[in-house]
Design goal:
The chain has a five-stranded mixed β-sheet. By secondary structure, it is α/β, with parallel strands linked by helices.
């Protein structure tokens, strides 16, 4: 995700925290990139918008060998489709703003600690040395498996904020109640739409891990057998000019930068969500100038197809020659 890339490449270095970016398609790349001061391995379980499915078990093994926590952003699959902890993740994070809320009405995030990482392995003295803020409390000794999540709450939440308002919390909990049935429908609609897009003359390529033609399909069947979530990307013939006409031409798909709403959304990542990245960085995250990202909602699939047909009709047909 573009915001995450910017956080790691621009914001965190100001705080003295640097990031080594690797090609996640080969799990051994993580182990090769580990340095003496490496303190975590971080991945997105399903990349946004690259939609690359990662071999979580293999990457977890690399993190274990390096004695650092394996952190997984599981926003796109959501807990309804994937539990990274079952595949070796130590910490899982979610943007609650997306599928868990489901309506694009509240901002929030969540941290889930599996309680499986050894914070007393010598790399994390803040867990094994007395805390001046709590009268000499040693987190690992006093809290054991809950050391990390307790520290995140009583120091991170208290000192840095990030607390949900009561109403936002209410909205997110309401969304959580219907998450499994929504994710099933999101996945069904996304797969059906991706298959349909493959047959359209206006479309140059389609990317969805549920397609048998996807290079991520085998991993998707392993890690996401219940569904591959609701994000579909595709390229249109005619490049950016066609992209603009399609994005402006939809009526059911809303031109919005969010994902995970019950309503369908359309966006051009290269000029919006990933515009702060240079061309090389965009390419590394799977963003091309002709790419359109769809967050497929819960509407009737025939209505979604009809909306795209209307938008496709606005394209200059000479680009298909």
């Amino acid at each position: 995700y573009g915001g995450t890339y910017n956080l790691f490449s621009v914001t965190l270095p100001r705080l003295g925290i640097t990031t080594t970016f690797v090609d996640p398609s080969d799990p051994s790349n993580f182990g090769k990139a580990v340095r003496e001061n490496t303190r975590a391995i971080f991945v997105e379980s399903l990349g946004n918008p690259k939609l690359d499915v990662l071999d979580l078990k293999a990457i977890a093994a690399e993190a274990k060998a390096a004695k650092v926590p394996f952190i997984v952003d599981n926003t796109v699959p959501s807990p309804a489709l994937l539990n990274p902890i079952a595949h070796g993740a130590n910490i899982v994070i979610h943007s609650l703003t997306k599928y868990i809320n489901g309506n694009g009405t509240a901002l929030g995030g969540a941290i889930i600690d599996a309680g499986t990482f050894d914070w007393a392995n010598g790399k994390f003295p803040e867990f094994t040395e007395p805390s001046a803020g709590y009268h000499g409390l040693v987190y690992h000794e006093a809290l054991g498996a809950a050391a990390f999540i307790a520290k995140a709450r009583i120091e991170g939440l208290r000192d840095y904020g990030g607390a949900l308002s009561p109403f936002n919390a209410f909205q997110i909990i309401q969304g959580l109640e219907t998450l499994p049935i929504r994710m099933k429908k999101h996945s069904e609609n996304a797969l059906a739409l991706a298959q349909w897009l493959q047959g359209r003359n206006e479309v140059a390529w389609v990317n969805y891990p549920g397609l048998t033609s996807s290079k991520y399909n085998a991993l998707a069947q392993t890690y996401l057998p219940k569904g591959q979530s609701g994000i579909v990307t595709f390229g249109v013939k005619g490049g950016f000019e066609s992209v603009k006409k399609i994005a402006d031409g939809t009526k059911l798909f809303s031109l919005l930068a969010n994902i995970g709403d019950t309503k369908s959304l359309i966006i051009h990542p290269a000029s919006t969500t990933h515009q702060q990245l240079d061309d090389a960085a965009q390419e590394s995250t799977g963003v091309t100038k002709d790419l359109i990202r769809l967050s497929v909602g819960l509407e009737d699939i025939e209505d979604l197809k009809a909306d795209l047909v209307s938008a496709f009709a606005t394209i200059d047909k000479s680009v298909f020659a």
